[in-house]
Amino acid sequence: LDGWEKQTLTTLGAMALAKFIRKVNIDSFVSDMFMFTKSGILLLSWMMDQRIFSWYCVAYAMLFLYVRRPEYKGPSRIEWLNPATLKRLVLEPDDTDKNVAWLVEFYASWSPPCVSLEPTFADLSCKYTTADLKFAKFDLMRWPKTGEEYGINVAGTSKQLPTLILFEKGKEAVRVPHVYKDGRIARARLRRSDLIAAFALD
Asked: Where, by residue number, does the polypeptide cross the bilayer (predicted)?
């Protein structure tokens, strides 16, 4: 291998190691590795032949637009909310349900971090759902005004997707990622162990 080829592979290896250490789950790690590999091939094709680079760019764009990461289809105990059920079940529960806490994921289907979190959130719902704790998801793309009410930015550059909020007796108790008083957004830690600790599930 030439020097620039070794440098490219070394860079990819370092990025892979960093991603593995910080991975949300193995699915997200594999997805990131495919992306890094395609990016590395893109760089190498530019070095070899710009015609190959051009064709690869076309193929890369087609894959990006039409071949999306598959949705999670495994077991879960997640309930799906809309504005009406969010209000009735979570924000204004009746006397029989007022002691039920809700861990709600506000998500957007196009967001890679939201897609990566799906298996982890589903697994947590299967393990920790009880009579006093329910898990739910709320689609911000269908009801963006609700996101605005909770100060969740749904732009493509947003650092707030997904946002997980634990509601207790109709009030927000814990939020990930945390929003500071000055408006800064804390770095979201979405690994299974991080979420268990943040919401005191154990």
From this structure: 52-67
* Local structure of residue 151 (DSSP, 8 states): T
pTM over 0.90: no
Q: Which fold has domain 78-198?
A: Glutaredoxin (3.40.30)
Report the side by side order of strands in the sheet with 101-107: 78-81, 133-139, 101-107, 163-168, 171-176
As annotated, the residues of the chain forming the CATH 3.40.30.10 domain(s) are 78-198
3-state secondary structure 31-65: HHHHHHHHHHHHHHHHHHCHHHHHHHHHHHHHHHH
Q: At what angle do helices 3-21 and 26-48 cross, to 10 degrees?
A: 170
Mean pLDDT for the chain? Answer: 86
- Mean pLDDT, 10 residues at a time, the chain of 202 residues: 66 68 64 72 77 84 75 91 96 89 95 90 97 97 94 90 96 94 87 94 92
Task: Express each pLDDT in 55-81 by its tens digit.
Answer: 888 887 887 777 777 778 899 999 999
pLDDT of residue 19: 60
Cis check: omega of the bond before 93, within 30 degrees of 0? no
Q: How far is CA 13 from CA 27, 28, 81, 97, 112, in A?
A: 18, 16, 41, 51, 22
